[in-house]
Design a protein that fits this description.
Layout lengths: L2 H22 L12 H16 L35 H13 L4 H27 L2 H12 L2 H6 L6 H21 L2 H17 L4 H17 L11 H25 L13 H19 L2 H21 L8 H18 L16 H14 L6 H27 L6 H8 L3 H7 L7 E5 L6 H6 L2 E5 L4 H7 L6 E5 L3 H4 L9 E6 L3 E6 L5
Parallel strand pairs: 1-2, 1-3
Antiparallel strand pairs: 3-5, 4-5
Helix pairs in contact: 1-4, 1-5, 2-3, 3-4, 4-5, 4-7, 5-14, 5-15, 7-8, 8-9, 8-10, 9-13, 12-14, 13-14
Length: 513
C-alpha cells in the first residue's frame, strides 16, 4: 500500500466514523419511539428475553404471552417464546447488557452502530476495489451513510442495518474473490451472505445472486477458469444451515406462536398496487434517498451507460455488471412477493433495493473519467458542499420523525420507573399483567420488568378475548381516559387497587375470579 493510499484510507475511516457518530449520537439512548416503535420494542425485548431465559439461544422470547401470529393477539400461548429470524445480533447485545450491568437502550444502539460502521467500511473497501479511486469510493459511501432511511436505522433496534452490514461484507469479499480467485474470499463471501440471510431472510437475494453469477460465468464466459469443486462445499453448508434453522423456527412457531411475520405479502388486486405506490410516492420516496442523491445516482448511471455505448465496449460474462443485474432482478421478485409490506414499512427498502442500487452506483462511477491536474482538486469543495446537503437532509429527516406527542414516546414515559413502583407495592415480578391500549406492546413490560398480555388496539373483538385471560392485574395509563370510551372493557368488573399519577392498577373483582 502506497503512502497516498494510507492517507486516503485514513481520511475515509475518519470520515465514516465522524459522520456516523454525528448521525447516531443524538439518539444513542433513546427508547423505542416514533415510527415503527412497535417493531423496535419487540426486538429490544428479545435482548431482555435472553437474560430472562439464561441465555438459551434456541428459545428466544419476548415478554408477551398472546402473540400476533397465528391468533392476532386473541390466543393465550402460555409462553413468551417466539419464532424469529436468527437472533445472533440480539444475543450478543444481551451478553453486552449482562457485561455492562444495564439493559438501557444505549447498549443496543451502540452495538448496532458499530456493526453499521464496520459494514460501511467494507462497502468502502469494495468500492475501492472496483474503482481504484478513493474519491469515487467515498462518494458511494457518502450516499449510503447520508441516505435519510439508512441514517434513521443506522443505530436502531431493527435488524435491517446489521444484516445490511453483512451484505456489504459479503459483497466486498466476493469482489476480492472475483479479482484474485483465492478460496478464502469465496468462503468469506458465502459466510457473510449466509449470516445476512439468517439475520434477515429478505437478504437471501444477494447470496442467491452471487451463486447464480458464478454459474453464469462458468457457462458463458470465454475466459473460463477451471471449475473449483471446493466452491460447492460452503454453499452446501450454507443451504443446510439455513434449512435447519428454518425448520427449527417453524417448530418454535407451531409450538409457541410468533410476534414476527413469516409469510409472503403480495398484492391481492390492482387496488393494492395503486395504494402501495401512492404511499411510497407520498411518504417514502424522499425517505429512501434525498433529492440530491437521486439526481447524483441517476446522472452517474446514465453517464456511465453513455460512456460505455460511445466506447462500443461489450460486457464480458465476467463483468460484475451482470451480478448487479441478477441482484436487481432478484430484488424485484422479492418486492413483488412482499409488496404490501412496502405500504407501511420503509425499512423494507433497506432489506431489498438499497444494496443493489449502491452496487450499480459503484459500477457506474467506475466508468467516469479520472480528473487530472487542478480539476481533481477543484471538485473537492463541490463534493464537500454536496456531502453537507445530503447530511442535512438525513439530519432533518431524523428530527422530523420525532414527535413529543407520539403515542409510543408517551407510553415509555408513563411506564418509566414502574418496575420499582410495582416492587414497592408488593406486586411480584412473576405476576402476569394485562396492559390495555398501551402502545407498543412490549414497551410496558420492558419498563415493568414483568411479563403479561397486551391489547394495544381499539378492537372490541380483541378486548373481548384478552379480558378473559388468566392475568393477575390490569394496568391502564391515566392519560388515555377518553380513548377508553371507544371500547367496552367491562370496567364494572374491575376493582381499582392503586395508582401513581400516570398508571392505574386494577384487578378483577373477587366474584369474577
Amino acid at each position: 500500500m502506497t503512502h497516498k493510499q494510507i492517507i486516503g484510507y485514513a481520511i475515509a475511516g475518519i470520515g465514516i466514523l465522524f459522520v456516523g457518530l454525528a448521525t447516531a449520537l443524538p439518539t444513542i439512548n433513546q427508547f423505542p419511539a416514533f415510527i415503527h416503535a412497535w417493531a423496535q420494542a419487540d426486538w429490544y425485548s428479545l435482548a431482555i428475553g435472553f437474560q430472562n431465559n439464561g441465555f438459551d439461544f434456541f428459545h428466544p422470547e419476548t415478554l408477551i404471552y398472546n402473540k400476533q401470529f397465528p391468533g392476532r393477539w386473541r390466543i393465550d400461548d402460555f409462553s413468551t417464546i417466539t419464532s424469529v429470524d436468527f437472533p445472533i445480533h440480539v444475543y450478543i447485545i444481551s451478553l453486552l447488557m449482562k457485561l455492562f450491568g444495564t439493559t438501557d437502550p444505549w447498549v443496543f444502539r451502540t452495538w448496532t452502530l458499530l456493526i453499521s460502521i464496520a459494514g460501511l467500511w467494507l462497502l468502502f473497501l469494495m468500492c475501492h476495489r472496483l474503482t481504484d479511486n478513493i474519491t469515487k469510493s467515498l462518494v458511494v459511501v457518502g450516499v449510503a451513510l447520508t441516505s435519510p432511511l439508512y441514517a434513521y436505522y443506522f443505530n436502531n433496534f431493527l435488524p435491517s442495518a446489521p444484516a445490511l452490514a453483512f451484505v456489504f461484507s459479503g459483497l466486498w469479499a466476493y469482489v476480492v474473490y472475483s479479482q484474485e480467485r483465492k478460496r478464502k474470499y469465496w468462503y468469506l463471501a458465502v459466510f457473510f451472505l449466509t449470516l445476512a440471510t439468517l439475520i434477515r431472510t429478505s437478504q437471501a437475494v444477494p447470496l442467491i445472486a452471487v451463486c447464480c453469477f458464478e454459474v453464469f460465468k462458468l457457462i458463458f464466459s470465454k475466459e473460463r477458469t477451471k471449475f473449483d469443486k471446493m466452491q460447492i462445499l460452503p454453499v452446501v453448508i450454507s443451504i443446510v444451515v439455513i434449512g435447519v434453522f428454518f425448520k427449527w423456527n417453524a417448530h418454535l412457531r407451531a409450538e409457541n406462536g410468533s410476534l414476527f411475520l413469516n409469510n409472503l405479502q403480495p398484492a391481492q388486486d390492482w387496488d393494492d398496487v395503486h395504494n402501495v405506490f401512492e404511499q411510497i410516492h407520498k411518504d417514502w420516496q424522499y425517505r429512501y434517498f434525498s433529492r440530491p442523491q437521486y439526481w447524483l445516482v441517476a446522472a452517474t448511471i446514465i453517464g456511465a451507460i453513455a460512456i460505455v455505448i460511445k466506447r462500443r465496449k461489450k460486457l464480458s460474462a465476467q463483468s460484475l455488471v451482470w451480478l448487479a443485474a441478477v441482484y436487481m432482478f432478484g430484488t424485484i421478485l422479492f418486492f413483488v412477493a412482499m409488496f404490501n409490506q412496502y405500504h407501511d414499512h420503509d425499512y423494507y427498502f433497506l432489506d431489498s433495493f438499497f444494496a443493489p442500487i449502491l452496487l450499480a452506483f459503484a459500477l457506474a462511477i467506475k466508468q467516469l473519467p479520472e480528473l487530472k491536474n487542478w480539476r481533481k482538486y477543484a471538485i473537492i469543495p463541490l463534493l464537500l458542499i454536496l456531502g453537507n446537503v445530503m447530511f442535512n437532509a438525513a439530519y432533518h429527516n431524523n428530527r422530523d420523525r420525532s414527535n413529543p406527542n407520539d403515542r409510543a414516546l408517551q407510553c415509555s414515559i408513563n411506564y418509566e420507573g414502574s418496575d420499582k413502583w410495582l416492587d414497592s407495592i408488593g406486586i411480584s415480578r412473576n405476576a402476569k399483567i394485562l396492559t390495555l391500549l398501551a402502545y407498543p406492546q412490549n414497551t410496558p413490560f420492558i419498563k415493568m420488568k414483568r411479563k403479561g398480555y397486551t391489547e394495544m388496539f381499539f378492537s372490541q373483538d380483541i378486548v373481548d378475548h384478552v379480558i378473559q385471560f388468566n392475568y393477575d392485574y390490569i394496568i391502564i395509563e391515566d392519560n388515555i381516559g377518553d380513548k377508553l370510551k371507544k371500547i367496552d372493557y367491562k370496567p364494572e368488573r374491575l376493582e381499582h387497587i392503586t395508582g401513581n399519577g400516570k398508571l392505574s392498577i386494577f384487578k378483577l373483582r373477587h366474584e369474577e375470579h
